What does this fold into?
Amino acid sequence: MKEVALVLGGGGARGLAHVHVIEAFDDLGVRPRVIVGSSIGAVIGAGYAAGMTGIEVREHILRVLHDRSEVMSRLWRMRPTSFAKVFTLGELDARRVLRAFLPDGLPERFDGLQVPLKVTATDYYGNSTTVIGEGELLPALAASIAIPAIFRPEIVAGRVHVDGGISNPVAFDLAEAPGRVVVAVDVIGAPKGEDPARVPSRIEVAFGASQLMMQSLIAMKLKLHRPDLLVRPAVDRYRVLDFLRARDIIEHTRATRAQVRSQLGRLLEAE
It folds into this structure.
């Protein structure tokens, strides 16, 4: 069978739709040679790289994001000595949040994963993408999900890092190799509204502008080179922090599984 790489992009809660792609891989009996993840794609990619099946990833998502009380309970239980220490100047501590929601048994280091994983983060002062594929897993994931103004920046290798999706939202360029089939998943979406004249809120503008910027980056990359399969689940209606709508997001994007199963199947059968 041809070698396959899986690239999972950033997009906050919209990235929960990644689960359908993993399930499609499972349906085909395909295991990726390498997984590349940015932001939420890094988190879900870590679970998959650790050996979780698509069904197990889905069940874990729905269990930990069951409702607001479950989310708040997990945040409360993971506090160090007081809930206030979860925050620093109004920003969340990404490492503590990940500890509260990641599945039990996830390896502490990259070399404990069953599939090689590359995680992207953005070097804030270096204006570049940092690719992390060795060492401790949690700090890398924390850096990759560090959405500005939501999570505080993370220090990686002595440098300040923020959300990996800012510099490389769908990092399919990191997965390419001769003869390899690259499957890339774009869950960035675009700002949507029923009334195009409605003035969005300050928060909506901030996240919406980020979406537009990242889609521009993806468009420029696609002009130069395209992955073998680019998957875009129907996530436009959801916002970056809509994690409490996990069940709705997964249900609304369920057609993605059949789409990937069919299109990837044809690519693998082609000469």
About this structure: The beta strands are 4-8, 34-38, 87-88, 91-92, 117-123, 128-132, 154-156, 159-162, 181-185, 229-231. The radius of gyration is 18 Å. The CA atoms of residues 65 and 244 lie 6 Å apart.
